[in-house]
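Co-fold these.
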Amino acid sequence: MSHEIAERVIELLERHPSIELLDITGGAPELNPSFRFLVERARALDRSVIDRCNLTILLERGMEGLGEFLAAQGVHIVASLPCYLEANVDAQRGKAVFERSLAALRRLNALGYAMAGSALVLDLVYNPLAGTLPPQQAALEAEYKRVLTERYGISFDHLLTITNVPIARFAHALAREGKLSEYQALLAQHFNASTTASLMCRSLVSVSWDGRLYDCDFNQMCDLPLGSGSGASTVWNVSSFDALTGGAIATDDHCLACTAGHGSSCSGALR
Ligand code: SF4
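Predicted complex below.
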C-alpha cells in the first residue's frame, strides 16, 4: 500500500466517525513504510487498531522497538499460532517458527500484553492444519491456556478459531491431494443458518494494497468486487461508506467456510 493510499484511508476514517476499528493485515503489515503512520493517525482519531501480527516479525533485524510502539499506541495484537505443539507449528510454518513465536509472545507479555490489570490485548489465532472444521473455540482456548501457561509461562487473552477458506494456496493444496470437493462438501453439510446474522462482511469493508474495496479479505483474494452496486470500487471513488450499509454482499462458494459449524470470521467463531 502506497503512502498516498494510506493517507486516503485516514482521510476516510476521519470523515466517518461510525468506523470504530482499523484492522491492519497482510503477511507482515509492519513492514509497510506507512504502518506506523496508519496506527498513529487512527489512534489520534480515537479509533481502535488491530495489528494481525505473525509474531516472528518482532524479532527481525530493523524491527527493534516495534513491540514498544504497539504497546505505547494501545494496539490490539492478533497473532497466528496454529497449534500449541512445536512439531505442528513448524510443519505448517517452517523450522523454529514455534520457538521464535514463543520468544515474541514472552516479549509482548513483558510489555504488558495479556497481563492482569493491563489494557493491552493479545489474542491468538488457530486454524486447522488440514481440511477439517475447527473444534469448539472455548474448549480449545482452555487447552491452549493450560499448555502455554504451564509449560511455557505465556499469557494471552482469547483464542480465535478460524475455518480455512478454500481459496488460493489452500484450495490448490487440497486440489493437489484430490480433497477439494470433499472439503467443499464438508462445509456445505455443516451449513449453520444462525451464523449469517453475524458474518463479518455485514459490518466491514476491506481495502486492498492498491486501494480497491471488497466485502471482505477473502473476496479481495478472489478479486470479487463489492456487491453493493453503489458504484464505489476504490478508496478514491467512495463518497460515503454509508452508501454500502445494508447493501448486497458479493458471495461465492467459499462463503460456506464462514457459515459452517460454529461459524468463522476474523474475530473467531460466530456462535
Ligand atoms: S467469505 Fe463470504 S460470507 Fe465470509 S465474510 Fe466474505 S463475503 Fe462474507
